[in-house]
Amino acid sequence: MRFGFVNKDNMSLLTDLYELTMAQVYYKKGMNSTAIFDFYIRPAENRSYFINAGLQQVIYYLTNLHFTAEDLEYLRSTGLFEKEFLDYLKNFRFTGNLYAVAEGEVVFPNEPVVQIEAPMIEAQIVETFVINTLQHPILVATKAMRAFSVARGTLLIDFGLRRAHGTDAGMKAARSAYIGGFAGTSNVLAGKEYGIPVFGTMAHSFILAHRNEIEAFKNFIDVYPENSILLVDTYDTIEGVYNAVKAVKEIGLKQFKGIRIDSGNLLELSKKAREILDREGFKEAVIIASGGINEYKIKELLDRGAPIDGWGVGTELVVSADLPYLDCAYKLVEYDGRPVMKFSSKKRTLPFKKQIYRVFQDGIFHKDIITRYDESVENGRPLLQLYIKNGQPVKEFPPLQDVREKAINSFRKLPDELKDITASRQVLPELSQSIKDQIKKLEKKFLKRREK
Amino acid sequence: MRFGFVNKDNMSLLTDLYELTMAQVYYKKGMNSTAIFDFYIRPAENRSYFINAGLQQVIYYLTNLHFTAEDLEYLRSTGLFEKEFLDYLKNFRFTGNLYAVAEGEVVFPNEPVVQIEAPMIEAQIVETFVINTLQHPILVATKAMRAFSVARGTLLIDFGLRRAHGTDAGMKAARSAYIGGFAGTSNVLAGKEYGIPVFGTMAHSFILAHRNEIEAFKNFIDVYPENSILLVDTYDTIEGVYNAVKAVKEIGLKQFKGIRIDSGNLLELSKKAREILDREGFKEAVIIASGGINEYKIKELLDRGAPIDGWGVGTELVVSADLPYLDCAYKLVEYDGRPVMKFSSKKRTLPFKKQIYRVFQDGIFHKDIITRYDESVENGRPLLQLYIKNGQPVKEFPPLQDVREKAINSFRKLPDELKDITASRQVLPELSQSIKDQIKKLEKKFLKRREK
After folding, report:
1. Cross-chain residue pair A204–B332, CB shorter than 8 Å
2. A150-318 falls under which CATH superfamily?
3. What's the whole-model pTM score?
4. Given the DSSP bridges, would you call strands B229-231 and B258-261 parallel, antiparallel or unpaired?
5. Which of B159, B166, B193 lies nearest to residue A166, judging by beta carbons?
């Protein structure tokens, strides 16, 4: 019975077969000069910005990559690989450089969020994992920030582990949601591994296992007098609120943490619940809402005055329901000192090793400019930083709280029309004059060659 | 730097915090009688059936569950758990029973696909992981079968690893797609771990790294004379087909495996490519299409006569783009011998330990009937089987190929109106008279209690 867990010692095979067959061709043909690949996101209709995330895992991957004897034995068994190449893989390590935009930073379509510069075989083999490891965190951190942007300081908790696409997605969602401004997660392992605050309430099954609601509430409060969020909608929500109040009073507490409503008309129910709680002397008890929550519902409910203090956001966050995948790519832009460009179709690539400069006006984001790597832009802040040099990590990672703060600050500097969750405005980076000129030259050369 | 890998030794904490806080309450209150929980799927608008998958991993989880000293130390550090309960967790094992529908079987909404019968604490703690581990495999196996149902015997390959939500989703997608009728995957680790056939072609970067297409093709063919699928759309697709032919001829081969088209008008391009390949004597060379493929596009292209022999299906398969999550639940249906039912809202639950009987007419699926566990139905095949008894696995797992065959056979027995990918007909199981009567009794009892 194989679970299929991915770990440090088998992740090197978590790649598309063609990465390895192409690598063997490169190896046999001696094509292993320096290549530069860009990871970037293509425009998406319903996102004006993205929050960068997932980088730390990419760096872990690149600096731990190796093929075990078991890996090599499997590759041999496919009949596709020769002994010489398998021997080469035996000592394979990533020896290149990685430039990247910091986690938490706002990024836009067409920008090289990650740029890898390495011998061709190394840069190629890592493609699949790099895309896999960046896409979902960016999706979730962005979705989270959209919720944060309309939550007006109310508490946002990731409740999505059960509906994430597998175990790793559950971990990444918790981490990425936290980066995107969430206060914490229900995922205990994410709490342990990443130091994210963990939150929890109770399930309907807990109520149903008792003979009645009051008994269930009392049992919970008795064990967690300071930490009980009582779930009130198992039978009838308003009756549930009264039962919560009754249970707290019968136990003899002056205050309790709050209630959760998981279904029904959240606007009406939260208003009635607030009234009851206030009238009964529990002004500090919070109201948490959950069940199909997303940024649109949070905005609407708060706009209409729902007295909701916090949100359990699950499914729609962790699968990024209105945008379940990014149109993102990892493309060759330079090989052996030669700029490389894909002309076919509309999916053109941007050649050259590059830098991104961010320009602000009066403290507000104005534009990003993409340049050749060695250009500079006055008053522009370079976004791409060196994280791996010759295979070695060269940059300390900030604590996750600092990444979260960076994300919030980076978001806050956006102009209002980009912050709006219904905004469809697309920000694309400008190209520097120098890079534009050089692209024109390449186009001419390409057209000439085609005419022959 | 923490990657956050999930493995056998830390998966017990991959759960929602409330599972553990509720468990502590149960523990302290001595509420650990037998509970029965159902995992089931609620109706989805754009799915008429589901293919069951993910069960093997659930069984692995349940039979390996344990808390390590590190886990317990983390739980202690949260301040939420008392020493006595942590000591209990130290020796915690799953000692219950698991009944489930076999992997590969067609299932319908509201059916208990998995039924867990265990002491309350054990049955509760496993909730989050069980849902997480079943949902995504069912989504992908179902999406795969939809593609299989319209592919008319053409080859279907999972190309989705890079766009899956994390590493585990990439593994589960490959396995589930194979169950759902795919021929294989590009995911090498899935090939190794699950014995799934692996496939691969080449990337645009491979072409771009060479000075021209012909050189790139020749280098690849030279290393893989029998295994080259040449990617022809980097510059101009039709020119690419001619270059492929030229490269093969210059190398001196009589045949080659085929070409891949990843963009553009796949109908026109595949027709032209077929013409050229046939004319040039390469009648056996296949045409593989990729790029934004889903079951709707496969159907349309084949309906219109596109001579496409195989499909690389990626993103839309692995994230199940038109249904990125299941509305699924894990609900208490019996506790301590007492049937349990949630009445609030429309999300009612079905009380009692149950069995599902499948009834065929003339070899075609007719209906499913849900009964009490000890009822029987004439000519009905019981779907729920015992997989874990008192914590021990009691059923051999069939090879994955057999699960795939079961899925295909189970699908083939559906009536045509359910097989249609645009069908919106919902099949819901019937309830046996006995279970209906008993639900009515419970309702009466509940209403009486409410009137008091």
Report:
1. yes
2. Aldolase class I (3.20.20.70)
3. 0.97
4. parallel
5. B166
